[in-house]
Amino acid sequence: MYPIYWVLVTFLVSRRIKTEIIYKMSESIKGFCLHGREKIAPNSGVSVTSNTSVVEMDIPELKEGEILAKTLYTGICGSDNSASLGKSNFDWVERPRVIGHEFSAEVLELGPGDHGDVKVGDIFTPLAMLGCQEEDCPACSVAKWNLCPGKQIIGFHRNGGFGQRVVLESDRVVQFMDGLTPAQGALVEPLSVVVNALYNKCHIKPGDDVVVTGCGIIGLMSAELAKAAGARVAITGIAHDRDIRMKSATERGFIPIEVSPENSLTAQLAAGIKDANGVPFGNKGKIDLLIECSGVPQVLTEAIDVVRPEGDICVIATYPKEVAINATHLTRTSLNMRGSMGSCRDDYMVAQKLMITGVFPSEHYTNMYDFADITQAFEDSIKANNVKAVVKMN
Q1: Using alpha carbons only, how large is the chain's radius of gyration in Å?
Q2: Which of 212, 303, 202 has its CA nearest to residue 257?
Q3: Which helix (H) or strand (E) holds 301?
Q4: Second label for 328, Cα 20 to 30 Å away, from 94, 124, 147, 171?
Q5: Diameter of the chain by CA atoms?
Q6: Does residue 211 belong to any structural domain of this protein?
């Protein structure tokens, strides 16, 4: 009886495993892949997505500490756009690479090793940055993986969330809080970056006048969190942003400032800006805090001219080249300028709560696309014809 029983069990288990393998091999799994390095100007006539394509993906065997997940929703980050345009500050990204680090996913399979409390069926978003975790690492030893010199960024150092399946380390997993939707999960990472910047680097007080430079999603998130802290907030954009991104900002009660080479932020503040109630914004052309999110070198150069003495400048953006700063003016006005890189697990938890409680209204800023339209989503995002592109991956 027992030998026959075990033969039957072995047969059924073997058959199930073979069926799963055949299923995985026959299932068409696609990803959006960065493969080229051509330097593309958005208005050059060259397709802004010519460095990318949709590809068939192979799923590698899981290694120690890895999991397999099905991606649910993935957001397009400004860094994804920059890499796709071949900008020099993303030359380090190895090609070909399935990009994407802002996503929600469901755990399908656990590889060998200890995965803590991570289990099949968990819905999560990943930590974009994984540190070396060495005991003598100054950053990792204090749980600041985002500052580790050897950090690995999913979507840049290994395939990421623009694949319909993704293999990643279970150490990255941040399970969802109750009430967070998978679509909101695609915005946790960028919001966590802003949480880190505004709550850990800035000193916002109720009544402060704050300018956010740049009306991409990081700028809009910064504006929302500054307003939630009690500040009065203005946000800058260019003429192209007027009907989409600046419109979204105005609908949320922010003061729109359209800038150009002929009509700079400095000049407009000096001439006087008023809020919707006619109350002057700033004091004699100076503000309390500037949050730089544009990534335009000239904007950072100009920033120190519009902040009051002992005021603050917080830099979230990165730049394609070195930026000139009047360091003497910085000293003589005792300005505080701080950079902010990425985020940590604690910031992810705060970001989730801000969306669950409605402090950050994700639905107001999200533009949804199906995976079949992912190339169009990237084109719209690169050309700033949407606010925040989020792709439904499966």
Answers
A1: 23
A2: 212
A3: helix 297-303
A4: 147
A5: 94
A6: yes
What is the C-alpha to C-alpha distance for residues 221 and 355, in angstroms, rounded to an integer?
A: 11
Give the Å distances, CA to CA, from 40 to 43, 295, 378: 9, 17, 14
Beta bridge partners of 110: 67
Cis peptide before 256 (omega within 30 of 0): no
* pLDDT tens-digit map of 232-254: 999 999 999 999 999 999 999 99
Q: What is the CATH number of the domain that holds 103?
A: 3.90.180.10
Rounded alpha-carbon distances, angstroms, from residue 122 to 71, 113, 117, 326: 12, 17, 10, 50
Q: Are 259 and 292 in contact (CB under 8 A)?
A: no
State whether 244 and 370 are in the same domain: no
Instruction: Please check whether residue 223 is in contact with residue 191, taking contact to mean a CB–CB distance below 8 angstroms.
Output: no
In a domain, 14, yes or no: no
Q: 295 and 263 in one domain?
A: yes
Amino acid at 146: N
Q: For residue range 73-101, what is the model confidence (pLDDT) as tens digits?
A: 999 999 999 999 999 999 999 999 999 99
Cα-to-chain-centroid distance, residue 337: 22
As for how many domains the chain has, the answer is 2
Q: What is the pTM of this model?
A: 0.92
